[in-house]
Amino acid sequence: MDAILALAADPAAWVALATLVAMEVVLGIDNLIFISIITNKLPPEQQERARRVGIALALVLRLALLGTVAIIVRLTEPVFELFGHGLSWRDMILIAGGLFLVWKATKEIHHNVDPDPGPDMFDTQKAVLGFGAAIGQILVLDLVFSIDSIVTAVGMTPHVPIMVVAVLAAVTVMLLAANPLARFIQANPTVVMLALGFLLMIGMTLIAEGFGAHVPKGYVYAAMAFSTLVEALNLFSRRARQRRGGGAH
């Protein structure tokens, strides 16, 4: 208790908390986009419950990982070498998660571009995703994003209470934003393609980082912000044309 009170009285701890909350919220957006796209494929009555379960799993995984910070730190130590580069467990998890994200985003883009394809490698026989399958896919990416989130937190502060508060704040934002974001994505088909493009880019970034190529997060998020701005202008333009068209009648 004394240690927590000492942290509360330390201005540097508050600066670290604010910075870490911002970082965790940004990292949570990636997770939330994926959850929104997956749950929108469920029957309407299951979508909100799946989003809450997916975000709850993200919280549980993050808190569980915080309880094993010493193990998380050891995950960054090289286990073996591949092509002259030492790979750690974290690297392998990031590579696997990135490959899954690239596969999933490519599959969804394929379905959006060609809504009635024949049987192929993408297995389009099942029109509606099952609740269990959706939660399984969300769990896989929750794990990847949770490890990335906690490794980032460990790198920014040594204080576990600050990490816990930052994670709780980020997950609260995810809970509040989940339904509005999912509804917005569902109501705007072009936004779905933009979000899938983001997932593809994030997947490639995870793979690159797993192989030791550092990709500055600022560049990735700047590209996402610019693309979002362009898409927002397109939405405003379409709505303006619709209003003019409606007024003409």
From TrEMBL:
<feature type="transmembrane region" description="Helical">
    <location>
        <begin position="218"/>
        <end position="236"/>
    </location>
</feature>
<feature type="transmembrane region" description="Helical">
    <location>
        <begin position="159"/>
        <end position="178"/>
    </location>
</feature>
<feature type="transmembrane region" description="Helical">
    <location>
        <begin position="127"/>
        <end position="147"/>
    </location>
</feature>
<dbReference type="Pfam" id="PF03741">
    <property type="entry name" value="TerC"/>
</dbReference>
<feature type="transmembrane region" description="Helical">
    <location>
        <begin position="190"/>
        <end position="212"/>
    </location>
</feature>
<keyword id="KW-1133">Transmembrane helix</keyword>
<keyword id="KW-0472">Membrane</keyword>
<dbReference type="InterPro" id="IPR005496">
    <property type="entry name" value="Integral_membrane_TerC"/>
</dbReference>
<protein>
    <submittedName>
        <fullName>TerC family protein</fullName>
    </submittedName>
</protein>
<feature type="transmembrane region" description="Helical">
    <location>
        <begin position="87"/>
        <end position="106"/>
    </location>
</feature>
<feature type="transmembrane region" description="Helical">
    <location>
        <begin position="55"/>
        <end position="75"/>
    </location>
</feature>
<keyword id="KW-0812">Transmembrane</keyword>
<comment type="similarity">
    <text>Belongs to the TerC family.</text>
</comment>
<feature type="transmembrane region" description="Helical">
    <location>
        <begin position="12"/>
        <end position="34"/>
    </location>
</feature>
